[in-house]
Amino acid sequence: MKDYLPYLAGALLGVLAALLISGLLTLQGTAQLMLFALLPAFGGAIVERAFQRRSGKS
């Protein structure tokens, strides 16, 4: 379970970013759906990758 923490933290950051962007730009419909689908996945992947590089895992 501990191995998933970096991904979960990145996904949470992605959700927060999606909320912020959606609120600032008042997005609705398909644009908002895409934002909430993509940002958590990208955020989780980026943070997980950065964590693996920092810890020396490949």
Which helices and strands occur, and which strands form pairs?
Blueprint: H1 5-25, H2 30-55
Helix pairs in contact: 1-2
Structure explained in plain terms:
This protein is mostly helical and 58 residues long. The chain contains 2 helices and no strands. The protein has helices at 5-25, 30-55. Helix 1 packs antiparallel against helix 2. The longest helix has 26 residues, at 30-55. The radius of gyration is 13 Å and the shape is elongated.
Short overview:
It contains 2 helices and no strands.
- Poorly predicted residue ranges: none
**Amino-to-carboxy terminus distance:** 18 Å
Broad structural category = mainly alpha
Helix content: over 70%
Average of per-residue pLDDT values: 91
Instruction: Please report the total strand number as a whole number.
Output: 0
Biggest sheet statistics: none
Strand content: under 5%
Shape: elongated
In DSSP terms (H or I, runs of 4 or more residues), the helix count works out at 2
Q: What is the C-alpha radius of gyration, as a whole number of Å?
A: 13 Å
Helix-strand pattern: HH
What keywords describe this structure?
single chain; 58 residues; mainly alpha; 2 helices
